From TrEMBL:
This is Aminopeptidase N. Residues 564-891 form the Peptidase M1 alanyl aminopeptidase C-terminal domain. It catalyses: Release of an N-terminal amino acid, Xaa-|-Yaa- from a peptide, amide or arylamide. Xaa is preferably Ala, but may be most amino acids including Pro (slow action). When a terminal hydrophobic residue is followed by a prolyl residue, the two may be released as an intact Xaa-Pro dipeptide. Its EC number is 3.4.11.2.
């Protein structure tokens, strides 16, 4: 076998879905909890599904010691059942079954952080997607929904807190220092939503009055010493509950709702029914340890997991191919939640821009690589590899297109019908589409292609103005590149929100032949459904400038040949804030691409005054929200610039971008200083939108100012670092110092600041993650520096947060250094993927994605990348998670 043709396990196909042979009505579980050895008793009442072609009783299990198996009260012998790998099969079982299973598991040895595992002396579960099978033998699939009653027993001193899903119905003491807690979940749920937490924890709790008048107990559980960091998470939870009541008419359906924070977690958080388990990153916050970005992230993730209570828990997925049914919908809901909390038009635009930047930088790249897949995939080898930006972020864009097409009220009607039809069911993406179509009377048949076709569509634009007839034609043509397994694509149903601007930058009333009912509007959603369509606008007195894809109304690439003057008009005047920002990004990208090419030819670099003046005018426009100006002044990332090239030169892109930043600073130093000085936020730290906006612009100005290598700007950052009253300002100053290319004396001061930062926060894990992240992404950090940091006593690969802070950030967010010409970055990558594969395959597979698109780089780098991929592929006992990623990359 050649190393570049690594064989992966057989793929699971969506079209081969078979309903389960047995349904499970009730589950009664008893846990005798211990870090080293936990006994799990599982009693299931099951009945045959006569509609299924699967006649045997089939259960899944992994890393389990089977202690006892009883069917309808009779203990089964080994001859009565078959275990083949991770499948337990009982043939000739009766139609009505009570199955009793006792298993033994070892939480302290479970480094995968899936199933039941140990974390700092506590016991935690993570069952999505297929972790429940690591706890007990079970038909571990999302379409098997049951009601659960759970009894937890443990040593009271070691595990004083015992939590599970739903409502606490009994608790008390047992003999020999043990105690118990009994929990009942009144709603049917799939096994992936099962949860338990046992350990030494403390909580902040409040009684919250729901809209109906009923009161619910809200709790945020954390390790001792972290109780002062829970208020923002609690506030975010209360806001989430109220928003879902008001926006969608959905009320909390339990007597209590709990959040538990743990530092050992593979993901951001998990929506287990009534017992949400969170990565500490998305719970713990106060002004001394959390930045504005952290505060916003906590609010968003708390909202996301709470909203899953209905979009994911009450209505769940029939199978894992339908994952975006819950995730894409819930991401859309959390995006709207965050935008609604800001409230203002510009504030909503800032949130929208932030979301689209992630989509373009990460998801568009995924769509163009070997792991490209539809929003509803057709196959997978390992489901954990499909918790992707395509499922989440592109899935959210698909939901947003429903919202754009149907409007606010129309979308709400569709949601109401969806819950009315499917509450308590495991359903498909097509069921959601049917609810939207039936509630609105719209034909959404073609819209299904957004679920079944991978790739990022491109929409090209050709315009024609007839001055005599006063007509303006916009011809839109769509195409979509080939993706793995899908060479040709059918036309999508693409909503294009648009307007027309006159020479003064004002919106023109729109009179379109195809949309007579909306005559005179200045914003219109035209619908591209054919391969090519022309839309005619009448009563256009002078040739306009089109503003297309407003608010990024569809996840497509818009190819339109704007002049700099037209982009300048949009940049300065567009009434749609997103497209105003978009015009600036196009202006900047055009120059960055040109400069990258100039570098490759050895010519002298220069940046035109027109562009610099456009940025100056925006920076000094006090009528604009500071957060919006910060986004307008932020250059496209190196990853975004790379997307404009068929062959990527990371060093040239980095040099070009740094040149632009330095040139902007040279010309706008006085303006940047003014922005820095006038956007201070003295007094007590406030994580409100207005204060965050000021800090964002101030700290962007500081980062620019340090591109000017003189004593005054360095001292400005150094002073902010020493005197900052909050983590946002302190970290921004440290980042600026870390990236400052100054004198030897200044570099020593920067290193001293890094050491001081570590000393001040060495007991705060989340802050130390930031310390590693700053160094991983610094322009001066090379592979040897990363290896040095990996030897630091505070670094460990076993904790996903710590691994991500250093290793992932270096490989994914420091392209000029990771893609070193000697291939040393790829050699490090291979070593770490192999090491993580033994510890935590899910985390390893995510790191493996760093070399997805290795064929997009120059031949010399490709050779090093291929060797690294082959080294991983040749590893013995390679997990399904990593094998799938590497094999697809090598086969690309």
């Amino acid at each position: 076998m050649r190393n570049d043709t690594v064989i992966t396990p057989q793929a699971i196909l969506r079209q081969e879905y078979v309903a389960p042979g047995y349904w499970v009505d009730t589950v009664e579980m008893g846990f005798d909890l211990d870090l080293k050895s936990t006994l799990v008793a599982n009693r299931m009442v099951m009945r045959r599904n006569h509609a299924s072609t699967e006649k045997d009783l089939v259960l899944s299990g992994e890393s389990l010691k089977l202690v006892q198996l009883r069917l309808n009260g009779v203990k089964l012998k080994k001859a009565d059942y078959q275990i083949d790998g991770e499948t337990l099969r009982i043939s000739n079982a009766p139609d009505e079954v009570t199955l009793e299973i006792t298993t033994q598991i070892q939480p302290s040895k479970n480094t995968s952080l899936s199933g039941l595992y140990a974390s700092k002396g506590n016991l935690i579960t993570q069952c999505e997607a297929e972790g429940f099978r690591k706890i007990t033998w079970f038909p571990d699939r999302p379409d098997v929904m049951a009601k659960y009653t759970v009894m937890l027993r443990a040593d009271k001193k070691k595990f004083p807190v015992l939590l599970s899903n739903g409502n606490l119905i009994d608790e008390g003491d047992l003999d020999d220092g043990r105690h118990f807690a009994k929990w009942e979940d009144p709603f049917k749920k799939p096994s992936y939503l099962f949860a338990l937490v046992a350990g030494t924890l403390v909580c902040q709790e409040e009684k919250f009055k729901l809209k109906s008048g009923r009161k619910a107990l809200l709790q945020v559980w954390v390790e001792e010493g972290n109780l002062d960091k829970t208020q923002h998470a609690m506030d975010s939870l209360k806001k989430s509950i109220r928003w879902d009541e008001e926006r969608f008419g959905l009320e909390l359906d339990l007597d209590r709702f709990m959040i538990v924070a743990t530092g050992d977690f593979n993901m951001g958080a998990m929506e287990n029914k009534g017992l949400n388990i969170f990565n500490t990153k998305y719970v713990l916050a106060n002004s001394s340890i959390a930045t504005d970005i952290d505060y916003a992230g906590i609010e968003s993730v708390v909202g996301h997991e709470y909203f899953h209570n209905w979009t994911g828990n009450r209505v769940t997925c029939r199978d894992w191919f339908q994952l975006s049914l819950k995730e894409g919908l819930t991401v859309f809901r959390d995006q709207e939640f965050s935008a609604d909390l800001v409230g203002t038009t510009t504030g909503r635009a800032v949130k929208r821009i932030e979301d689209v930047r992630v989509l373009r930088q990460v998801q568009f790249s995924e769509d163009a690589g070997p792991m490209a897949h539809p929003v509803r995939p057709d196959s997978f080898v390992e489901i954990n590899n499909f918790y992707t930006v395509t499922i989440y972020e592109k899935g959210a864009e698909v939901v947003r297109m429903y919202y754009t097409l149907l409007g606010h009220d129309g979308f709400r009607k569709g949601m109401d019908l969806y819950f009315e039809r499917h509450d308590g069911q495991a359903v498909e993406c097509d069921d959601f589409r049917a609810a939207m179509a039936d509630s609105s009377g719209r034909d959404l048949t073609q819209f299904e292609r957004w679920y079944s076709q991978a790739g990022t569509p491109r929409v090209s634009v050709v315009t024609a103005y007839d001055a005599e007839a006063q007509t303006y034609d916009i011809k839109l043509t769509q195409s979509c590149p080939a993706t793995p397994g899908q060479e040709k694509k059918l036309p999508f149903h693409i909503p294009v929100a648009m307007g027309l601007l006159d020479a003064e930058g004002k919106d023109i009333p729109l009179y379109c032949d195809d949309y007579p009912a909306q005559a005179g509007a200045t914003n219109l959603v035209i619908e591209l459904t054919a391969a090519s369509q022309t839309f005619r606008f009448n009563k256009v007195a002078s040739e306009p400038v089109p503003s297309l894809l407003r608010n990024f109304s569809a996840p497509v690439v818009l190819d339109i040949d704007y002049t700099d003057e037209e982009l300048g008009l949009l940049f300065a005047n567009d009434s749609d804030p997103f497209n105003r920002w978009e015009a600036g990004q196009r202006l900047a990208t055009r120059r960055l691409v040109k400069l990258t090419k100039v570098l490759q030819t050895g010519e002298e670099l220069s940046l035109d005054d027109w562009f610099i003046n456009a940025l100056r005018n925006t920076l000094n426009d006090e009528s604009l929200d500071p957060a919006f100006r910060e986004l307008m002044l932020t250059l496209p990332s190196e990853a975004m610039i790379a997307e404009a090239f068929d062959v990527v030169d990371p060093q040239a892109i980095h040099t070009a971008r740094q040149f632009v930043r330095a040139t902007i600073t040279r010309h706008l130093k006085a303006d940047l200083l003014h922005a820095y000085e006038t956007h201070q936020t003295p007094g007590k730290y406030r994580p409100d939108a207005a204060s965050m906006a000021k800090r964002s612009l101030k700290n962007l100005a500081l980062s620019y100012l340090l591109e000017w290598a003189d004593e005054s700007t360095f001292d400005l950052a150094h002073l902010q670092f020493k005197e900052a009253a909050n983590m946002t300002d302190r970290l921004a100053a440290l980042a600026a110092l870390t990236n400052f290319n100054g004198t030897e004396k200044q570099q020593k001061k920067s290193e001293k600041a890094l050491r001081r930062f570590f000393k001040d926060f060495k007991k705060e894990d989340l802050v130390i993650d930031k310390w590693f992240m700053l160094q991983a992404t610094a322009h001066t950090t090379d592979v040897e520096k990363v290896r040095e940091l990996m030897q630091h006593p505070a670094f460990t690969l076993t904790n996903p947060n710590r691994a991500r802070s250093l290793v992932f950030n270096f490989c994914n967010a420091n392209p000029s250094r990771f893609h070193a010409a000697d291939g040393s970055g790829y050699a490090l990558w291979a070593e770490l993927v192999i090491a993580l594969n033994k510890i935590n395959p899910q985390v390893a597979a995510r790191l493996a994605r760093s070399l997805d698109r290795w064929k997009k780089y120059p031949v010399g780098l490709q050779a090093h990348m291929k060797l690294a991929l082959q080294k991983v592929a040749a590893t013995k006992k390679l997990s399904k998670d990593v094998a799938e990623v590497v094999s697809k990359a090598l086969a690309a």
